[in-house]
Structure formats: C-alpha cells, structure tokens
Amino acid sequence: MEARSASENSPGVPSAPQGRPRRGGYRRLPVQQRREQLIEVALELFAARPPEEVSLDDVAEAAGASRPLVYRYFAGGKQQLYEAALRSAADELTSRFSVPRKGSPTEQLAAVLDRYFDFVAEHDAGYGALLRGGSVVETARTSAIVDEVRRAALRRTLRHLGVRQAGPRLTMLVRSWISVVEGASLSWLDEGRQIPPAELRDWLVDQFVAMSAATAVHDPQTAQVLAGLLALEEPDGPAPALVERLRALLAAQPVVR
Amino acid sequence: MEARSASENSPGVPSAPQGRPRRGGYRRLPVQQRREQLIEVALELFAARPPEEVSLDDVAEAAGASRPLVYRYFAGGKQQLYEAALRSAADELTSRFSVPRKGSPTEQLAAVLDRYFDFVAEHDAGYGALLRGGSVVETARTSAIVDEVRRAALRRTLRHLGVRQAGPRLTMLVRSWISVVEGASLSWLDEGRQIPPAELRDWLVDQFVAMSAATAVHDPQTAQVLAGLLALEEPDGPAPALVERLRALLAAQPVVR
Question: Bridge partners of A70?
Fold first, then answer.
C-alpha cells in the first residue's frame, strides 16, 4: 500500500534529497526497502529467541534504525511486526512446497522435505515458538497464518499424489503425516539435532509409505494411491527398499493363524 | 490454599450462617466447592466456544454467581480462570493415560485411546483451541501446561513399552505418534466426526505398529521394542492382524531386485 518511491521519515510523502546527513546517524532507505529490511531483521531475531524475548528496541537496533522509525512502519508495534514477519516466513515456507518435476514420487517428497528442514534449521527457536503456540504475540490471526501453511501442505501433498477428491481416511492420513513432519522437526530441535537431517528426511519418507500402507489395508482410496505411487518408483528407490525391509521384518514375526 | 470451611463472600474468613437469604438471590456455596464449580462451568464454556468468545460474565451467569464473586476467586480475571480450567483439564487428560493392567499391549493402547477420544469429544472446541494455540488467552504458561501433557504422554508410552532409556530415534517415533494422535483428533473434529471413534482408535493403533516397523528397519532399539510388543499380542489381536494384512499388501507389490 505504500508508495515505493516515498522516503521513510514520512512514508507516502516525497523524500528529502538523498545523501543529506541525518539526525542520529541512521542510514536512510527507500520505504519499501526499509520495510523489507525491518521484516528481515525481525525474522532473524524471532528465529534466534522466543518472540516474547524480542523487543521493538532490539529490532530497531539491529536494523540501524530508531524506535520511532520502526513505529512509523508498524504502527501496531511488535504485534504488527511479528505478524508481518510471520506472513513473510509462511510465504517462504509455502513456496518451498513446490514439487520438483524430476524424480520418483518419493524423491520429489524427499526434495521438498530437504527444503522444509533447511527452513526449520534457519528459523530454529522462531519455528518452535510458532508451531507450539503460546507465545505472547500469538493471536487468532497468527494462528490462521499457521493453519494456512498446513492447509497448503495438505493441498500440495494430495496434488502430488494425484488425488482430486480425498475421502476422510486419506485426508486424515495426509494431515497426520504432516503432523509427524511438524512433531519430528520440533523433536529434532529439542533433542539438539542429534539425528542427521538427511536421515530424518529419509525416515519421514519411510513413515509416509508405512502410514499409507497401514491405512491402505482398510481404505480402498489410499490403497489405490499407494499402488500408484509405488508403480512410479525406481527399483532402487527408498519406497521399494522399505517395502523389502518391511517384508523381511514382518516375515521374522511369528506367523499367526 | 483456601480453607475448605470458609464462605465465599470473604474467602478465608469464617462463613456467615448458612441458609440466610442473600442479596441478588445467588446461591451460596462453601469456598472450595464454589471454586470447583466455577472451574467446571468455565471448562464447559471453553469447550463449547473458542476461549476468546467466552466472557467472565458468561461464566458468572452460567454459575449462578455475580461477576464480582468470580473476581473474588480469580482476581486475575479470565486469564487466571482459563489457566485454572486448563490445568484441571490437563490433569484429567493425564489421568486417562494410566494403562489398564489387563490385555495385550495394543488392547491397552486402544483402551487409553478410547479414554482420550472421550475427552476430545467432550471438550471439542476447547480441545481444538488449546492444541492449535493462537487463542487470545494463550500464554507461555498455558503453553507449558500443554507441553507437560505431551511429555506425560511420552513418558507413559515409553513406560508402557518397557523402555527405560529411549534413544533419539525411538523418542522421535513416540513423539511423532503422539503428534499423529493430536493431528488425527483435530482432523476428526474439523471434518465433522465422519469417522467412527472406534475406527479412528484402531487406525491409531495400526499407525503405531506401522510407524514402529518403519523405524525398526533402521533402529535396533525400536526393533527390540516392536518384537517385545508383538510377542505379547494375542494371536487374534490387532497387531498380528495388521502384520498379516501388511504382508499381503506388500506381497502384492512388484518384487524388486
């Protein structure tokens, strides 16, 4: 909504001549650029510490700006800045859900998970605070942003599986697997990243196959989706390998009836 | 902390004679009983609507009490009342995690899940608001209460599995399965309870077995736990049945290498 050409001391009003020395020695930036810079700085701070431990002064200082200047851009203060930062992070995360064109279905899933875990690793404390809720800057609006990301993940995953109209069991399966991705990433952060990210990614792909298999034994739609997915796999890909290993594991269990 | 014998108009001070007519026609209750009643009424209201749509006046009205009286018990207002209600709900939920002595491991797990879903069904909107976060009465304290419940679920499940010291992979598996239980219950509420609760429970038990199997192929500790669990199962129980069905499903997939 702000004019891109305006200067920051009075957004919307034509800027004073560039290069003139400013009070306080702060660096002058064009409006849009400053706005983006403030969001970026805020994101970094919210990633490093829980949101309740980040003050507007911290943001101003890290941005090389004054507190009144931050307020000029975010009149709603920390809450508004947090929401803008969250929206920016949510957009970035959602953009990572786009599935590469190359590879088998599980290779594509693995590529998306790699990008997801890069994001988790970058945003660390901020990611945790976000998913866990309960931060003091958490509201119904921030919650809606997070829910939107989850819905986007559900839509993308179903589209990736070639599903147009998911029944309640397939929907529950995919939503639950998305919960596993969230839960595993939080657990990974909490436990000090003990498990290598590549192993975690492979584990999540395996979980997807195993959870689908356990659902497929009762739900025809999931059975069809799983069969379609396995048919597209490379013979030496992770899904056939898991199928083989599960076969061996199950064969080792005592046969019943 | 309050004396059980005190009356409510001045908690901590001996009560006026019982049975005397009161101003405003409100019913008089002993202090502890009134406190419990207010929490119970608040829980019902928070279960029926998102917490931000429940006012202290609503609580007072539903309890047959005045607003000042509610403030006398909960000087911190709605926030304090919400936390007390949440604490009470969390204690109730945690108490349902106790595993019955009878039955195979999966029968015991199913019994715990039945009690869990009774709780979800009773608390409905309140349960959703709680797990999703983002309610206006959500704080670091309420978040800590929810995290405590999750940690209790993790501890109980590991104890149930006979695990003393869980490695990072087994911990991640159990935490992830708990995320599945949460995600599935939210999905179940959101999708209008289309799936019968008994089917949902059986599905979650199956997911536990399948997720354990997929983890067991790479993690010796999980393999040991799963083998121990399956050894205790009844031949006609859900875990052997799933193992059989998975075998059949996997056998139907094209054999690789």
Answer: none
